[in-house]
Amino acid sequence: MTKRILPNCARCPVEACVLPIKVNDELSIEKAPNFCPMKVMPDVIERALLEYDRPEIKELARQASIQEFECYEHLPEGIRTKNPRILELIEFAHKCGYSRLGLAFCGGLSNEARLLTDILENNGFEVASIMCKAGAVPKERIGIRPDEKIAGPEHWETMCNPIMQAEVLNAEKVDLAIMLGLCIGHDTLFIKYCRVPMTVIAVKDRVTGHNPLAALYLANSPYYGRLMTRTKQASGP
User: Which of 157, 163, 168, 180 could cross-link with 105 by S-S, CB 3.0 to 4.6 Å?
Assistant: First the structure.
C-alpha cells in the first residue's frame, strides 16, 4: 500500500507560495517539494478559496489583511513592527464594527482579565466575561478521582468548564469571543463549542509566563533540550 503524502509546510525548503516575484509574474510551483499542499491537495485549496466568495467572510478576511499591513511601518531604514497584540485586537474589532466582546478566561489569570476588560471598555467596547470555574461544578462530575485533584484528595475542587464559557458567550450573542489563558484541552473544548467569531489574546504556559515559544526557542539548548529527545511514539523523518 502506498503511503499517503501528508502536507508538510514546516519542512519546506522552497516556500514557493511566497517567492519574491512581481505582481504580474506567474507563480510556479514546479520547484515545490512533493509534500507541498498545492501539489498534494489542490482540490481542497480551491474549495477553501470559494469560501471567500461569501461577502461576510471576504470582508472579515479583508479587514484581517489590512490589520496585518498596519502592524508595520515603512521607514527609510526598512520595515519595522509597531503594534502589540492587544492594540491589534482593539483596532481589528473596530474595523469589523464589533461592539460587544466576550472574554473567556482562566481563573489563574483573573488579574489579566480585569486589566484587559478595563482596556477594552476604555476603548468603547461592552465586555461580557466568564471565568473557567463559574458554575462551581465539582471535578467528580467528569470522573476525576480524589488522588487526581491538584489541592489534594480531601479538598473540594471545581472543574474547569469551557463548554459553559462558550455557551454563555453564545447566549450573550457577543460579536467576538476572546480566549485568555485556558488550559490545553479546555481551550480545545471552548473552540469546539464557541459559535461566534473567536480570537486568542494569550495561551496558558505555567512555566514561561504564558509564553510557550520560550521553550521552543530553547529546544536546542541544555535548558529544554529534552524536548528534542526522540520518543517511542515519534513519527516522521
Answer: 180
Q: Check: CB of residue 75 under 8 Å from CB of residue 147.
A: no
List pLDDT tens digits, range 99-118.
999 999 999 999 999 999 99
**Who's near 149: CB < 8 A, 6+ residues apart?**
139, 155, 157
Q: Is there a contact between 108 and 158 (Cβ–Cβ < 8 Å)? A: no
Q: Please indicate, yes or no, whether the overall pTM of this predicted structure exceeds 0.85.
A: yes
Alpha helices in the chain (DSSP H): 37-40, 42-50, 55-69, 85-95, 110-122, 162-171, 186-193, 213-217
* CA 161 from centroid of its chain's CA atoms: 19
Question: Quick check: 33 and 62 in contact, CB under 8 A?
Answer: no
HSE, side-chain direction, 13 A CA sphere, residue 167? 7
What length is written for the chain? Answer: 237
The single residue listed with the C-alpha cell 480551491 is 46
Could you tell me the domains of the chain?
Answer: 35-82 (no CATH), 97-229 (3.40.50.2300)
